[in-house]
Design brief:
- The structure is a single chain.
- This protein is α/β, with parallel strands linked by helices.
- The protein folds into two domains: 19-331, ABC transporter type 1, transmembrane domain (ABC transporter transmembrane region fold, Up-down Bundle), CATH 1.20.1560; 348-577, P-loop containing nucleotide triphosphate hydrolases (Rossmann fold, 3-Layer(aba) Sandwich).
- It is 61% helix and 10% strand.
- The strands form three sheets. A six-stranded mixed beta sheet has the order 6-9-10-3-11-12, with helices on both faces. A four-stranded antiparallel beta sheet has the order 2-1-4-5, covered by helices on one side.
- Strand 11 (552-557) and strand 12 (560-566) form a beta hairpin.
- It is elongated and about 115 Å long.
- The two termini are 46 Å apart.
């Protein structure tokens, strides 16, 4: 399978002592502080750039007021050389400013992509669904705005008063015209925000919802195609898109009208400046060079305001994306790190465990108490909707109990560092999802593991022959961009992933749901091998051949333990109460 490259050292973290890596909420603070420092440098660049912009109007004044009346060619050469040097410096600084902003955007995404992804995963576990990759989309939107040209007017706008002051110095009357124009454009900017903000936020939220529904539709493509759901799905999504588009069109129409008025107003200001300037020149109150210079300076001073109005949609989208991203990071935790505990033996304890989902007031798991010794197999049975899957998610630590504790060798699952818990716990969920990548990547849990370790897990799960039958064996790409595989193949690969790395606790939720008789016997063999290795197993299943491998069984009904005891005793009780069935 070839040599695998190790992870870059810079991506590794040193574990703390009983602490979390940076909480996702706190991850924003150093990022914002660093951005502020860099933006301070960008503001300094902008100061020099705006001062250099005065070189052109000053050049025009000198040309009209000194060179042309006197005919001094030497003066023309010197002035031209000076303004050329100023423009070269301007170009270099402007390019540097653009590069700095681009790198700030890229750095911002690189710093927040990990907290955003981990927060999205935590949020999905918390609410039982999540918002797909919306957090990463929002981060890309923020990066595009913060690192693009749309943000530059924010650095140039504070210099508008300086340019207006220069116009005042040329002539007070022209300065008052400039102030009137600046106030008019400012009113347009405020009106643009007031009349479009809510509509743009609604449109952005609708777009985010439509994208999330599209993601869900792609994941359920088989169901949609088989059951003819596509027309209804398109109609439903059409309503969402229609609502968003109607708000976006309304906002665009208002914004376009304001932008058109802004442009017309700016042209009118230029006409006023030239007209009044010509009047003052005729009255010998100012020079022709001053008239031209005042017009150029005013145009430069008002440009950032006009550009801000034109780029308002990008600003509103970035602001909404930032707020969604901030809320995601605020309500979700990050990956935990802490003291590395000794390898556990596999003693599992549940102490008064109850769980109520965030969206429900009533608990779906009530007061579960049980203990599974090292190397023993616990079977969980019960009717559909009884809470079996929720219980195993509590056991593996993907959900935290509302009340009570789940312990592995006495340590609460919530206190185990995520990386350590992942090494010691194997989990086969009821709905198997594989990552886009090779079979090897999936079995190795996306880690850089030795080939023999991957093959050993595959053989333990009875998946080795299945993998070898694929086109490229362990290097076969599956998922997005890869070959389709059957439900049984997916189940066996996921089982190999669950037993990878010699975990001490393996939790299997309906592991035989997609297996044929051969696959089921292979599963039984895997359970026997794991028992021989001293692995503690929690098994949810409904078929007797698998359940007879357990040492104890618990019957879950309406989220409570209806029965618990040795397997033979529980099976006898179930046979008497519900003939021909293992569990309700």
């Amino acid at each position: 399978m070839g040599e695998r490259k190790s992870a870059p050292a810079g991506l590794l973290r040193s574990p703390g002592i009983g602490v979390m890596t940076q909480h996702s909420n706190d991850a924003l603070k150093p990022v914002i502080a660093s951005c502020r420092r860099v933006w301070g440098g960008v503001a300094a660049f902008s100061a020099f750039l705006n001062l250099l912009m005065l070189a052109v109007p000053l050049y025009m004044m000198q040309i009209f007021d000194r060179v042309l009346p006197t005919g001094h060619i030497d003066t023309l050469y010197v002035l031209t050389a000076m303004v050329t040097a100023a423009l070269i410096i301007f170009g270099v600084l402007d390019a540097l400013r653009g590069r700095i902003l681009a790198r700030v955007g890229a750095w911002l995404e690189s710093e927040l992509s990990e907290p955003a992804l981990s927060s999205a995963v935590v949020d999905a576990l918390r609410v039982g669904g999540g918002t797909s990759a919306q957090g990463l989309r929002d981060l890309a939107t923020v990066r595009s705005y913060a690192g693009g040209p749309s943000v530059m007017p924010l650095f140039d706008a504070p210099w508008a008063p300086v340019f207006l002051a220069v116009v005042f110095l040329i002539h007070p009357l022209l300065g008052w015209i400039g102030i009137g124009g600046a106030l008019l454009l400012a009113v347009c900017a405020v009106a643009n925000d007031l009349f479009t903000r809510k509509r743009m936020v609604t449109a952005n939220d609708a777009q985010a919802k439509a994208l999330n529904e599209a993601d869900a539709a792609v994941r359920n493509a088989d169901t949609i195609a088989a059951m003819g759901i596509l027309p209804a799905l398109l109609q439903r999504r059409g309503h969402v898109i229609s609502d968003g588009l109607s708000q976006q069109v309304a906002a665009s129409e208002i914004s376009s009208a304001i932008i058109a008025f802004t442009k017309a107003s700016r042209f009118a200001l230029q006409v006023a400046m030239l007209g009044v300037g010509a009047y003052l020149v005729i009255g010998v109150e100012m020079t022709p060079g001053g008239m031209i210079a005042a017009s150029i300076v005013l145009a430069r001073g008002l440009a950032p305001i006009e550009q801000s109005i034109s780029g308002w949609r990008a600003f509103v989208s970035a602001r909404a994306a930032w707020r969604r991203l901030r809320d995601l990071l605020h309500r979700s935790g990050a990956i935990k790190t802490g003291t590395t505990l000794p390898r556990p033996k596999g003693v599992l304890e549940l102490e008064g465990v109850s769980y109520a989902p965030p969206a429900r007031r009533s608990a779906v798991i009530h007061g579960v108490n049980l203990r599974v010794e090292e190397g023993k197999v616990l079977g969980i049975v019960g009717p559909s909707g009884a809470g079996k899957t929720t219980l195993v998610r509590l056991i593996v630590g993907s959900l935290a109990p509302t009340v009570g504790h789940v312990r592995l060798d006495g340590a609460d699952m919530a206190m185990w560092p995520d990386a350590d818990r992942g090494r010691h716990v194997g989990y086969l969920p009821q709905n198997v999802e594989l990552f886009a990548g090779t079979v090897r990547d999936n079995i190795a849990r996306l880690s850089e593991a030795p080939d023999e370790t991957v093959v050993a897990a595959s053989e333990l799960a009875g998946a080795h022959k299945t993998v070898l039958a694929l086109d490229a064996a362990y290097e076969t790409r599956i998922g997005e961009g890869g070959i389709p595989i059957s439900g049984g193949q997916r189940q066996r690969i996921a089982l190999a992933r669950a037993v990878f790395g010699n975990p001490v606790l393996v939790v299997l939720d309906e592991p035989n749901a997609h297996l044929d008789s051969d696959g089921e016997w292979a599963l039984i063999h895997t359970i026997e091998r794991l028992r021989e290795l001293g692995v503690t197993i929690v098994l949810v299943a409904q078929r007797a051949p698998v359940m007879v491998q357990t040492d104890h069984m618990v019957v879950i009904k309406d989220g409570t333990m209806a029965a618990y005891g040795p397997t033979e005793k529980i099976l006898d009780e179930l046979r008497r109460s519900i003939p021909s069935k293992v569990a309700g």
